Each structure stands twice: as C-alpha cells, then as structure tokens.
Predict the structure.
Amino acid sequence: MRISRILHAGYVFECEGTRIAFDTIFENPFSRNCHAFPDVRFDAAAIRRERFAAVFISHFHDDHCSLESLDLLDRDTPIYLYCRFDELFAMIRQLGFTRVHPLELNAPVLVGPFEVIPREAMDADVDSMFQVKAGGMNVLNVVDSWIDEGTLAELVRQAPWDMVLWPFQTMREIEVLAPSRALAAPPNLPEHWIDQLRALDPRYVVPSSCQFQQEPWSWYNRAFFPISYAQFTREVRAALPRARVVRLDPSVSVLLGSEGLENAPPLAWVHPVGPQDVDYVYEGNAAPPSTASIARHFAPLTAEQDARVRRYCSVELPAKYGDVEAGSAYFDVPRIWQLTLYDHDGVATCWRYRLDGEAARLAGAEEGPLGWTTEIPAAKLYAALELGESLTSMYMRINDAVFDDDHEAAIAEADVVDDPLIRCLFSDTFGAYQAAQLRRLRCPKTVAPAQAGA
C-alpha cells in the first residue's frame, strides 16, 4: 500500500493500480487563513488530470471539505461523504458531481482492492474516522477526531494495526478567543492519547491532521499550537518503543508492506516550497496584540460592505438574538453587552445592547455596567456574514476587560462560546463556507472577493 500526504488530513492511498483520496484540500491557504506548514504549492492543472477511483471526506468542516478543491476533480469521481446534513450533498451535486454517496458508520465501502470502513468518532454528529484495508495492510486514519472508550474497544478488536494516522495537535481554538482569561496549556500530549496509542499498538505512527499556521503576522502562531513534532515523537517513542514515528510532509510518499516501510516517489502535483523540516513553537498566551492592531492587517471594506455590517449590528443582530438559545445560565438575567468593531485603520465603533431573556435592543451608556464584551475586525464580521468565514479565523476577542466584582464572579462560570455574536452568527447555520464557495464558483464575477490580509 502506497500512502502519500496531500496536506493536513489529506492523503492518497494506492494499491494494485487503484488510487483513492481522503479529505482532499488542494489550496494554500485553505479555510481562508490556514497556511500550509511546511509551505507548499499545488499544480492545479496537474490535479485536474488526476483520476481517483473514489474520494472519501470525513466530515463537513471546511478544512476537510472544500468545494474549491473538489472543483479541480473529474465530475465522474465517486464522492463518499460522512455528514448528517443533506445540504452539503446537494451543494456537491450542484458542483456537477454525479456520484455522491453518504457514508454509514461501520458499513464498508469496496473500491478495487480497498475496503474503507467509516468508524465512529466521539462526536458522531460531526466526525468520522477511517479504517483502510488493502494489500494485507490495516491502517487507521483518525483524521482529527476524538476516540471514546466504546470505539477504542472496537478498534482494538480490529488489530493488528500496521499504521495509525494520529491527529497530533491540541489546538486552542477556544482559549485564543479570551486569552486574558485562559491558562497556558502544557506542551505535552494528553495522557489518554498515550493510553489509546498503547492499546492500538501500531507498527507506525504518523503525526497527522495539522500542517498549517495562520498568517505570518498572526500571534496565533505562537499560542494556537502547543505540540511540536519533536515533542510528539519523543513521547510516542517512549510510550511505544516498538513503534516507529514517521513524519509525512506534503507530497511525501511511503510504501507500507509486511516487511517494513520504504520511501516512494512523491506526489508530482504537490510542490514543497522552502524549508520543510519546520516545527511549531509554543509561547503560552504569547502576549496577544490588540484587536485594533490586528484589524489594520485587513483591507478596507467598501461602502456597500460597511453598510452591510452596520445594518447587521443595528437591525439584524438584535432581531436574531431571540432565535438562538444560550448554552449557559449567564444570560438568563439581563446583561449589558458591548460589541466593538475595528476598521482597517484600527478605529473602533461600539454598539451596546441590553440583553434580557430572549430580547435584545440597542442600549445607551447610562443603562448599567458592562456584563460582556466582544471585539472583532469589521472585515472579519463581513466575511462571516457573506463569505462563510469560520470562528477560528475571525480574531474575535471576548471579555478582554475587567468587570465589577459581581460580573467577574458570574463570568468565571460562563462558557466563552456563549458569546452573543458567536451564537447569532453560528448557532443555527450549516455549510456557510461551502455555500459561499459555491456562489463564487458558479457566479465568479458577481460575488464580492474575500477581504485580503496585509
């Protein structure tokens, strides 16, 4: 079995002349601000000439299912997707694919010599992982999911494992939203990861599902990724002395057989750029810059785009608030919330709202002490509204303030993702990123471009 890395969770598997692909991302950056790490470029023309016997997509997140990447593939390619939402299947069909199939947990899909079995992840409403069998080899692609004890027991019964593609980063997507209130994470692997890897006992372990950083200027690059390749290798080697840790960078291929692992020719359409032996450096909360300074990295909104954002803040957001439920009790009592937007010059515009149960209305400064704050670059709010921007790339800053004692005590028990803006933007939406991609692909001249970063 030949295994080649595309990027992040993307792989090509080949056996007996049959080639299948997983979580195909052919973009750099992808998900708007995920920059390949190490850096690569893709030969789009060569990818268009590729013919895969099937493509498997583990879940709907935009760093795994991108319509702009799928657009490079032959429309007769069978697409197998694990997703609970019919809308995404419809979008892929609208792109022109004629064979789009839902994946069912534990139901094998046979493609030539391959048997691909979707396995249950901890959040079965979102994720799946893949067991891939061919050529006498047995590989577990965990993608970027978590494994519960029930699934682990089933996977142990599927042993022996020749290779496990293991998601090696403990990314801090939530902590960077409120860095002044988050503790720095230890740069070590969680203990249960080691226990699970010991239980699986593979011959080879690949650190997988994280090969990106944010924009070069981003403070997230020092605060988002606690685990280095070196640390992962040290800990896994110590825990599994019989296993070999194998780093597969984009384009790199190996031939997995019963006698061992050999290097194989790289993917011809993935081109490494610059140094490839790079690693993550974690600096705790990394002294985050102000939201005003972050906003200066983004291009100015047009007058029409600015009007869209202002209309949302003044009219649509208060109307939307009552339609989405809070996840914690913090907002069960009236609160004064301040939303601050920063333009490309770092100039702030503030909206205050009185949140009272299911109602929200604009409020004045005299209506009481602040009970919650949210900051965001105006360009990023526009991108969330119109371009499908996801939370992890919006540089939102929550409760970066000191409140009175009563509010501080209550906020300590609140969930940061209970933020009113997060709830109004994301609580009842699905596939916004892919829907925006589809609009661009079908009508490229009529859809506003993404806001550029400086």
